[in-house]
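Protocol step 4 of 6: structure prediction from sequence.
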Amino acid sequence: MRKSAFRSLEKQRSRWGWIFLAPWLLGIAVFFLWPMIQTGIYSFSKLVVGADGFEANPVGFENYLHFFTKDSYFLNNLVTSLLETIPSTLLIITFSTMIALVLRAEFPMRGLARAVFFLPVIIASGPVISILENQVMMNGSVGAETTTYLFQAPDLTLVFADLGVPEKILESITSIINEIFDLMWKSGVQILLMLAALNTIPGSFYEVAMMEGATAWEKFWKITLPTLSPTLVVVIIYTLIDGFTDYDNLIIQTINSYYTDNNYAYSATVGMIYCICVLAVVGLVSWIMSRVAFYSSE
């Protein structure tokens, strides 16, 4: 009786799982699967815009050969877009973990501090963060009027230059200052996930470690990090995809540029090449991280 009841409960949970997945599966089929197939068809065609819409004339691999043999900038931009995301991902993961550890502790106005770090996720999108970077991070200016900025990186550059700081170190300092805002803005979801994972760690783990005389450093490496590792896999994959699809990404800008110029075939071709590369990188990272992650069921 117990086995049959357990199986019935498992079937009920499975049924509810499929019910909750149904809207997502429907969205994938309608808003992703068919557009993806259509993009693949466009990448092997020459599109002519007519009165009745697009007319796709098959050209085989001509569009792909153009980017790999004739476009001298594409491969360099592709490699740059893929490689630049890796260090930024490591920085975001490290920052998110540190902030989550701080926000887990008890201190006055902790709820407000948590809201501040998660607020950018609610109000920001790709184009919005690009505009804010241009206005706030001194990467550009709007109009001819004087604009008030959050971080005055050029002024700090002058200060460090007067102190005789070498130019290379000066550039690194300025880059770090300019990336602070962007770093905080892109870490909201990661902080939330890491904080949720931290709150699931039983306090008894730390009590036993304390009785054994473990230091805070040993607790982090022996308890906190291994327990967080499954969540780290999710956070790393999310951060990688977020970086690969960032509005300031060179390949994303290339896709948008071709699309704006009504060159839909080239836009689709670049999109397909980039999608395959991103899937390969994410799959490799997922495979590596899943092998080193610690699962409590093991």
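Step 5 (inspection) to follow. Residues 136-152 have pLDDT under 50 and may be disordered.
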